[in-house]
């Protein structure tokens, strides 16, 4: 019988950072799935466009650019406080974690407010008007739901930070939240280009 020496695992770390953490890979998997949905929505938009002689359909005005462009800038700027918070925490300064993400949340709420105002008063079609309306409203609704989700997720992070929950060993939760915020903001760019620029190019 062959004898094997025991391996001493007592000094191995019981936590991990970034790509060494299962939580990191979990959020990457989630972003991959949701990114695929975004790509499918965009492909559906252009598939439907290819089956219509006019896109948007006759009688439907192309979306205005001012409000969506403004909301896009607001959403992109919202990434900055998240980034600064993550960097500060990695340097060993947890204080910004208790308040700086609230700036990002406020900006995300402004984004949603502009979107609600835009589609309530500046869009002349509904989700059940035609195929164009269905796919545009679906893209807007899908992305807005993710903005709402990341807002609540970040509120939990702030709540836990104020209760001094986070230690350097638990940094991965802050990092993962930042990654998801970046994803939600970045995912809006191809949707913006498809809905607002694509609709004008083929109108």
UniProtKB/TrEMBL annotation:
Topology within the bilayer: Multi-pass membrane protein
Keywords: Cell membrane, Membrane, Transmembrane, Transmembrane helix
GO CC annotation: plasma membrane
Family: Belongs to the cytochrome c oxidase subunit 3 family.
Subcellular location per the Swiss-Prot or TrEMBL entry: Cell membrane
UniProt organism field: Methylobacillus flagellatus (strain ATCC 51484 / DSM 6875 / VKM B-1610 / KT)
Domain Heme-copper oxidase subunit III family profile: 1-200
Identification of the protein by name: Cytochrome c oxidase, subunit III
Transmembrane segment boundaries: 23-46, 66-85, 97-117, 137-160, 172-193
One record GO biological process: aerobic electron transport chain
Keyword Membrane: yes
Main location: membrane
